[in-house]
Amino acid sequence: MNGKARISIAIDGPAGAGKSTIAKIISKTLNILYLDTGAMYRAVALKAIRESVDTLNREQMSKLVENIDIKIAHSEDIQRIFLDGEDVTDFIRTPEVSIGASNVATVPAVRLKMVELQREIAKKNSVVMDGRDIGTYVLPDATLKFFLTASVEARAIRRYNELLSKGITQITLEDVKKDIEYRDKNDSNREFAPLSKAPDAIEIDTTDLTIEQVVNKIMEYAKDYVC
């Protein structure tokens, strides 16, 4: 990273498009902070599940996030998510939490709370953020915006392999595909800050691309910010 002013990079797209993987590599390459916004919504969903709160009940969810404490720390290049003082990084990647995260993200009070935290971080740091509405809502003035896409089939296979690598085997590929289709519909049709491509975002279809190829495409645009 050179001596220029702070920069922000927004990477949006549907579930399984490769946003988090790519964002982490970009953050390392440019030596800037990576913020996994999806993990924040997962933490909210986990709290709701633990407290038997309906993740689609707006009134209950609004109360739930009033005093929620979500903090982010980085340890050995891994982003750790702390929920009310507990490290929940290893508990937020289950299919149940994935669906819950998509649900809570439709609740305006939840999104406002998370966006407030995300913008505060971006004010103090050069960042790369990935999510559903970073370029359109969270950071509309981001320095660079990208929108990653991929076929449902490709995204399902990626997510399924990711779960298997983490030892989560009590799920089928078909289950993961249904989960992604549900989240696509939920994320795209929510009334508040839905998943959508910002007019000035650069779209990249990752279906037939390797991780390295996607990173190279993004770095072509971000090269001005490399030492």
TrEMBL record:
One of its GO terms (molecular function) is ATP binding. It is an enzyme of class 2 (transferase). Its EC number is 2.7.4.25. ATP binds at G13, P14, A15, G16, A17, G18, K19, S20, T21. GO terms for biological process: nucleobase-containing small molecule interconversion; pyrimidine nucleotide metabolic process. It catalyses: CMP + ATP = CDP + ADP; dCMP + ATP = dCDP + ADP. It is found in: Cytoplasm. This is Cytidylate kinase. The gene is cmk.
